[in-house]
Amino acid sequence: MNRRLPIRLVSPLLGAALALASLSALAQPTFGNPSPTAGSDTSQRANDAADQALYKPVEYVNRNRKGPALIVIPGEIKSSNATFLQKFTANNIADFGELELSAANFQVLERSNLGPLLKEFELAYNLGDPQEARKFLGMGRLKSTKYVVKFDILKTEQVAAAQQGFDGRALGNIAGALGAFSGSWGGARAGAVGQAAVGSVHTGESSGVWIIGMRYKIINAETTEQLAQGYTEEKMEVGAKSSSVLGVSQSQEGGVSLDTMVQRLVQKSVWEIDSKYK
After folding, report:
1. For residue 8, with 0-12 CB atoms within 10 Å meaning exposed, 13-18 middle and 19 or more buried, which class applies?
2. Which of 146, 275, 268, 123 is nearest to 218 (CA)?
3. Which of 6, 41, 257, 270 has its CA 20 to 30 A from that of 140?
4. CB neighbour list of residue 161: distance below 8 Å, 6 or more residues apart
């Protein structure tokens, strides 16, 4: 027999159901892991290492105070490192700058509004030509520009490297020779087993440390005069290790990527801009 709930009970239940539905609709999306090794020991170790390189937002000290209007222009990459130059352009770094300055509550104006004039705009500010520079800021929202900001990469170099390893073949050969000279069948057999076991041990480990340095400049949009600049460096370590014993091997490699390092340098620079020049 069906019993109907009183109306006074139905309304709260309906409200709770709607509230739960709205919360689930607003929840951040989550995604599965289709990797065949998901949940394994190797997967756990790889994910633990990757977690150290995930994007972490910075709590900018003056983020509750609205900053002046500014435009981020592509800076210069003065490094001659081929790996870095293949991976990065000045526009990539300017994109990171726009993202972090927006997070710090600066009014970041779209440099794309300059369209094909962007190169001429950059050149005017790099040459310190105020009249030429101001010509490009006479349109729409760009009139409110107070600062022009740029981020330059001044250094990318590998400053240190170290490696070590162990190869058990030499010790295995000694164990085999000692067994052979023991004069007994048991000793020879034990020596052969020891030679195979110790000789199968191989381990290796290597590390490389890079230093990447970034400079920021704040330029007065009216006069093209430089108002402030700062410089910061970060270390980037890339490492790998491997081992093999009796045919069982494992290896691991990783480190913070160049993308992550550049973004962290931008975050440090923006933290200083937010703290000192808002």
Report:
1. exposed
2. 146
3. 270
4. 206, 207, 208, 209
Angle formed by the axes of helices 185-199 and 169-180, nearest 10°: 180
The model's pLDDT over 100-131, given as tens digits with 9 standing for 90+, comes to: 999 999 999 887 766 677 778 888 887 777 78
Residue whose entry in the numeric block shows the structure tokens 């977690």: 51
CATH of segment(s) 60-165+211-276 = 3.40.50.10610
Tell me, rounded to whole angstroms, the distance of Cα 270 from its chain centroid.
Answer: 16
Q: What does the block give as tokens for 224? A: 């093209």
For the purposes of burial, counting CB atoms within 10 Å of the CB of 251, is it exposed (0-12), middle (13-18) or buried (19 or more)? exposed
Average pLDDT, the chain: 73
- What whole-number distance in Å separates Cα of residue 71 and Cα of residue 78? 21
Q: What does the alpha-carbon distance between residue 71 and residue 151 come to, in Å, rounded to a whole number?
A: 12
Task: Determine the number of helices (DSSP H) and then strands (DSSP E) in the chain.
Answer: 9, 6
- Give the phi and the psi of residue 214 in degrees, each rounded to 5: -130, 140
Residue 79's CB: how many other CB atoms inside 10 A? 18
| DSSP character string of 201-243 | -EEEEEEEEEEEEEEEEEEETTT--EEEEEEEEEEEEEEEEEE
| Residue ranges per structural domain of the chain | 60-165+211-276
| Amino acid at residue number 181 | F
Say how many CA atoms lie within 13 Å of 195 toward its Cβ. Answer: 14
The residue written with tokens 């240190």 in the block is 160
